[in-house]
């Protein structure tokens, strides 16, 4: 049985698998396309449409169509359709379920074992929400993989170089990441990563749609076009087409009609680039931060700069990278590289789960009688020869902590006012698995009989002690302590494994009383996941 890599994108998604020749192949959807719009149309209480038809239905039924749901992953809110509440996880599960169904028709087998891609800069809550979406869809999620790492795996498979250092500039439909990756033999190691999971091609589309609306209103003053959901949806669909057209043409025209009024707008590439200059500038700011972080780790030169994600086709992207940084960027299968790399990683994961435990370096031992039997069994189950299984078992993929994690602390200003700050213990871009030394804190007040430990995750663009630039993701209390003096020591340590499971251990040193917190599931409980899984099963899916 094959394993599958799913690129669950903000605007478009696709599925890949490794075929009989050992090459990654795309499983086309029900209408023969390689990518599927990540759009869901709740047509009736029992029928859901996913993909291109759902996207087209947004004009007629805007209140029943959901798009860009990936931007809401990890957030706690619900949308109601036909009297049923849906979370971002359950809506994403419908996309995943349709992708798996169509891929199964393409490969003539059930799609079960998958790896799902996530933006490199996704935090704990977003990653767990993605994993839950896969479970709700009825899939066995072997692992999650950062999108740039997946792209690098695909690149590494096609490269003849023994070792290289690459920068991946990944501008998708709704997210943006930059990642520095070192390829050495069979090892793929992330050096550092940065990004913004609320910046992507959809923001460029929105600027075009606003420009079109302004043009229409200029020629039709007093029009109520700005209040028409149908008209605005029409402009949104047109904006994406215009953006794509301007990647090859210098100008495009668009005719608009609403309530008897008409307007014709000509959009040039120069005007488009002016309208979106600040958006592109934000990607370059993140790129600069990434280069600085890489330089701190001794990486200052790159063998290749890869452009990944459908939005990198905009000429201003490559031009800007050349002008600002002196790069010679390459388009690297921008729409499909992530899914293809994820398919390869899925095969690696499938091999490893069928073999004896991993070694200290993350590879799997493939020698000895027990390992030989396990290799033969894995080869038989996966339809591979034993040499291929041994090679895959030796592959090691090392990622990093995407954001900094720490605890809330309290101090006192000269006037006695309480001052709160987040003290980060686990730093961004620390290689996984990570377990830095514990840091020492002290009690803030006399006579404390309990110590509250709040766990916070970096939420801003850069590490900051300001609570406003961080998000609380968990807490715990060390209770029943003797009355402690102010300044009594507490050691707090953070650890994170390869799957993103964050463990926090706090020890009050006088009593050795300990608090241990595991932070992974945030948002849906196990019961809610099971309930959503049952709800999703009852829908008839179509594309």
Entry keywords:
543 residues; alpha+beta; Nucleotidyltransferase, domain 5; Actin, Chain A, domain 4; Substrate Binding Domain Of DNAk, Chain A, domain 1; 3 domains; six-stranded mixed beta sheet; 28 strands; globular
Number of domains: 3
Assign the CATH topology of the largest domain: Nucleotidyltransferase, domain 5
* Overall pLDDT: 89
Quaternary assembly: single chain
Number of strands: 28
Q: Let me know the CATH homologous superfamily of the largest domain.
A: ATPase, nucleotide binding domain
Q: Which structural class do the helices and strands define?
A: alpha+beta
The geometry reads as globular
Which CATH class of the largest domain? Alpha Beta
| Strand coverage percent | 25-35%
What's the gyration radius in Å?
25 Å
The helix content is 25-40%
Runs with pLDDT <50, length 5+?
none
How far apart, in Å, are the first and last alpha carbons? 25 Å
Count of helix runs? 13
Major sheet description: 6 strands, mixed
What would CATH call the architecture of the largest domain? 2-Layer Sandwich
